[in-house]
Amino acid sequence: MKPEHTDVPTPAAHHHDPAHSDCRGVASVLSRVGDKWSVLVIMMLVDGPRRFNELKRTIGGISQRMLTLTLRGLERDGLVTRTVYPTIPPRVDYELTELGRGLSEPVKALGGWALTHLPEITSAREKFDGEGE
Prior knowledge:
Blueprint (H helix, E strand, L loop, with lengths): L17 H16 L2 H10 L4 E2 H7 L5 H13 L3 E6 L5 E6 L1 H34 L2
Antiparallel strand pairs: 1-3, 2-3
């Protein structure tokens, strides 16, 4: 850093700015719903409730711990409900809430857009990466 670049606003300067608070709130929501595992879980729950092990089998590559953390985060954000049935062993179902069902449409649209434009994106990446050499 050069000496003339020392006038940097401190993070505390934004604490009273409502627009900054809104941005931080939106960013936290987008980080949840933009996470690849959250998107996949939401898509798996679109057709109705699923058990943990069914989700784990269906979502290739997700660890038990990551699925647990993802489901907890979605539950915390009000997108998924967890229902425990008093059987032996206990049966646990996960289901989208009304809020989660509302999110499934934009998630599907984003996924569709990504599939449609994947060749263009791949080509752009290859071109970009080739220029750096």
